[in-house]
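From the pipeline queue, job 12 of 40. The input is one protein chain; the requested action is below.

Action: predict structure.
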Amino acid sequence: MKYCISFLVLLLILGITGFMNGVHGVGGECDKHSTADFEKLAPCGKAAQDINARVPHSCCAEVQKMDTKCLCVAVLSEQAKQLGVVVAAAVTIPKRCNIANRAKGYKCGDYIVP
């Protein structure tokens, strides 16, 4: 719970200070995501930091709605790094959520979405 609250507080701070008006500098379809879209991923905080953490249903519901490419851009962002997101753990969230139509084999940085 402590990690989720910390994750949400950091997201809000970053959003308020203007660092997250979408995914900066990437261009394309992922730039349309606003701070509010990323705040919806707050329930994923602990699961994005620890591959063995339980993924809450609320996290899975939000990840299901998100395009794999945009999720990848989000977890590779500087903001995610500052929040302690571990890319190796974050890319497994769709699988841990049992999302059947996930983009298996999608390359996200140095990682492959399982």
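Job complete. The domain at 2-112 is CATH 1.10.110.10 (Hydrophobic Seed Protein).
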